[in-house]
Amino acid sequence: MGMEERRHPIPPIVAEEVLTHRFPEDDLSYTEKDVALYALGVGAAAVDPIDPVELSYVYHPNGQKFIKVLPTFSVLFNNRLVGTFGDIRGLNFDPKLLLHGEQYVEIYKPLPTSARVRSSKRISGLHDKGKAALIEMELLHRDIDTGELLCLQRTLAFLRGAGGFSAGPGNPFSFSSRTSSQFPAISFNEKEFDATPPDFEFEDQIRPNQALLYRLSGDMNPLHSDPKFAADAGFQRPILHGLCTLGYAVRAIIRCCCDGDPTRIATISSRFLHHVYPGETLVTLMKKEQGESSISFKCKVKERGKVVLSGTVFLRNNTIHHSKL
Fold first, then answer.
1. Rg of the chain over CA atoms, in angstroms?
2. Model-level pTM?
3. Mind telling me the catalytic residues?
């Protein structure tokens, strides 16, 4: 009998234990160097290193006091989150079958160029979907020095093969407890989005080594760097981080709709649909919504015609600046 045959099946999730789990607070610090490295990791200044919009994310020319911080930089505050899942008592799953499904970000104030951040986290959702379990983590991030709340984030993960833990058939377990949003909830309507041409379109070439560059910001999952690991997971080669794709999309929105001003972004809601390979061309399609107070977007890979990401962004000041940059 082989090693695989001797393995015991993973026990079912114990919802009561999962929902009573409490997490310690987590402190981290970052500097302007981390902000610039992240910007390079999501493609800033890759095509034209002297483009004024792109350069502002990595350098402060013309007397600008600080470099600009992309709002998606805040996702780096969650880098330790995946490892946290394995510490939750009763959350039984195969780590190789975990997929990042959705990401929500709510920005309360412009992110500082350097800061010390204290993060608190809790489970805000747990759902039995039969073949998979869905777990949602909610995180609040504060500036340690000022005490100000910087942002809220929700991360939804699919735990494939971990469903079926409900007490009885016909009554699937479902728990949800989210913090109230300070901004309007905006849903992505695919049928409406596809009914008319986009208002903006931005094309970006992803460099072949982009995943290797992005991982330097802290996401060391070998799926994005190790050819054998990627092949074992069913991919032709290492894939781009989903959050890196999101960074590309939001950078395109800031450029096309916000006149290059990242502080205009109030919320980001996204759903990860398919993988992206480094070296492919990413096309971000954008449409004005709700009287120009929000943007719906889709990202597709040009070479394969595959939609890889969709979502919405809510803008401060309720006005889209039609950039000519």
1. 20
2. 0.92
3. 219, 224, 239, 242
